[in-house]
Backbone:
């Protein structure tokens, strides 16, 4: 536990003493801000047009749902940006240690691999949480000018958090496979995109495989959260996904100790 | 303290070390000597539990490096070839981190960090970011990192590389002072380092141990013959033939002339036969001038070359 904390502290501090955290934060907030603006603008345009139409036909103005037409697409877009932002967070976790040789310090110290992995995982998760927390400012704007539903916002954030946790688990695993951060970033992105779109295949694949593909698609499960539905089934999927990839990470790290040839 | 038995490590088809066995007693400083790519680093990495051996066993303080890796890792300090530094941290921050993961109690961490910085002479760069340190300082931070938890066994892979002559002497003194309490293995390809710091030497070449002894014994044992150096003022050819006729002389080499009449000879004689008296009287009787006559020991360089270059 103490080792885990020491590694967690070091990783987190390293994020904020190197430019990585700031670069990712700035890039992410820039893009997220643009999406927020674009989505909100088109939502307003739509609202304006439909109320004018209502006036023209002398009908009651339609109830336009900010939750479905602004919030849901916004969180959806944030999730897609994360496919590109998370690899930048996770790429260095092991690749850098391998490159600079500090992995020798970790592997020859009385620290269990699981402690190292969890320390690193949670450091990345904290940085990720800072990223999604920063988008809270947009929700404040929505609340001051409209009446979005707090429940849906919270469930979307829970979904984003679990989704990010899964992405980071994939990223940390890929990072153990190489000592090159560029390779780590690229492979992680491809894998995340794959897990994102794999559900599309479920439409035309056979019923058994299709069902499975649909189930492991991170997209379909996130959709539930973005709609404001929290289902135990989805939470379990994300948690087991995280567990599986952390287990792969552990195997990859420990395999150095097993490989006798 | 360290027992290595029949250790073999293969990387694919390539054999890095082959049936290496040696042991180190408590408090001893062992020099691990060998040319580049001889298998020094591989052996050290196995001892530090960084990688497993293909076959054979290694025990540190009674614990097997494979079976009881965690116990072994608690008891070793390791300085790899490239010091494992987090270059974005300050010296103090880095050492504090290492102290924590080496299992030092939280309340002792601060004291230990200060102590070890004092010992390795890096107090003046305590708050400098490691990235900006010179190679010599980085190396010293690396040594500080290895000794911070007062390990029973210290494994240093080429600890003096990249240091200036003054620092080299300081580091050697430091290593010497660590012997006694700690068991030290240090690898090097710098020969004087071994004769200066180590109580015992293991010479390794192409993955095999070719010799293991004290530097003095090694020198003695490897001499198939004893050598004398002789400088004479007299006619060169004649002196050479006369010397060759002395009983017990195996070989005579001419070793540079300072002027026409002064000749230096390197004379190899049979073991345990001191021919100095005979040679001296021969030269004096002939009426030549005896300028110098002394026994020549085999240097560690010669032994090393002898052992690592023979087929």
Residues:
């Amino acid at each position: 536990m103490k080792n885990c904390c020491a590694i967690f502290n070091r990783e987190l501090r390293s994020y904020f003493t190197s430019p990585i955290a700031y670069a990712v934060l700035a890039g992410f907030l820039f893009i997220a801000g643009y999406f927020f603006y674009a989505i909100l603008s088109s939502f307003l345009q739509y609202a304006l047009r439909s109320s004018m139409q209502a006036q023209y036909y002398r009908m009651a103005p339609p109830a336009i749902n900010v939750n479905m037409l602004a919030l849901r697409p916004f969180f959806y877009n944030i999730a897609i940006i994360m496919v590109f932002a998370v690899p930048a967070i996770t790429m260095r976790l092991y690749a850098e240690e391998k490159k600079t040789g500090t992995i020798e310090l970790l592997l020859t110290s009385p620290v269990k691999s699981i402690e190292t992995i969890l320390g690193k995982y949670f450091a990345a998760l904290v940085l990720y949480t800072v990223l999604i927390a920063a988008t809270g400012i947009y929700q404040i704007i929505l609340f001051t000018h409209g009446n979005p539903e707090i429940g849906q916002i919270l469930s979307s954030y829970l979904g984003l958090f679990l989704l990010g946790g899964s992405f980071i688990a994939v990223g940390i695993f890929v990072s153990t496979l190489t000592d090159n951060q560029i390779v780590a970033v690229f492979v992680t992105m491809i894998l995340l995109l794959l897990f994102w779109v794999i559900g599309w295949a479920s439409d035309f694949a056979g019923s058994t495989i299709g069902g499975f593909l649909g189930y492991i698609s991170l997209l379909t499960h996130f959709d539930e959260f973005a709609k404001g539905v929290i289902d135990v089934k989805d939470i379990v999927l994300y948690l087991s996904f995280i567990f599986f990839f952390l287990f792969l990470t552990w195997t990859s790290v420990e395999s150095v100790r097993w490989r006798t040839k | 303290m360290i027992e290595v038995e029949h250790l073999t490590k293969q990387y694919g088809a390539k054999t890095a070390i082959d049936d290496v066995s040696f042991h180190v007693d408590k408090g001893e400083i062992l020099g691990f000597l060998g040319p580049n790519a001889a298998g020094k680093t591989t052996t050290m990495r196995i001892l530090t539990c960084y990688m497993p051996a293909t076959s054979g066993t290694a025990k540190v303080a009674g614990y097997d490096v494979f079976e009881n890796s965690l116990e072994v890792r608690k008891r070793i300090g390791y300085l790899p070839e490239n010091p494992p530094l987090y270059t974005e941290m300050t010296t103090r921050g880095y050492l504090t981190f290492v102290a924590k993961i080496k299992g030092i109690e939280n309340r002792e961490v601060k004291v230990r960090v200060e102590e070890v910085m004092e010992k390795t002479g890096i107090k003046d760069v305590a708050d400098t970011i490691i990235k900006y340190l010179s190679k010599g300082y980085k190396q010293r931070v690396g040594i500080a990192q290895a000794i911070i938890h007062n390990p029973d066994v210290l494994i240093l892979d080429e600890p003096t590389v990249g240091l200036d002559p003054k620092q080299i002497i300081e580091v050697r003194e430091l290593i010497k002072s660590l012997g006694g309490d700690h068991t030290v293995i240090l690898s090097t390809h710098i020969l004087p380092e071994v004769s200066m710091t180590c109580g015992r030497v293991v010479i390794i070449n192409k993955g095999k141990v070719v010799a293991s002894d004290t530097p003095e014994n090694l020198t003695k044992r490897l001499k198939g013959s004893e050598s004398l150096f002789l400088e004479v003022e007299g006619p060169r050819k004649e002196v050479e033939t006369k010397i060759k006729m002395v009983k017990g002389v195996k070989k005579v080499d001419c070793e540079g002339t300072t002027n026409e009449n002064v000749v230096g000879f390197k004379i190899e004689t049979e073991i345990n036969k001191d021919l100095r008296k005979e040679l001296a009287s021969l030269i004096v009787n002939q009426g030549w001038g005896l300028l110098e006559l002394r026994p020549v020991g085999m240097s560690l360089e010669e032994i090393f070359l002898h052992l690592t270059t023979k087929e």
Observations:
- The mean pLDDT of chain A is 88.
- Chain A touches chain B through 29 residues (CB under 8 Å).
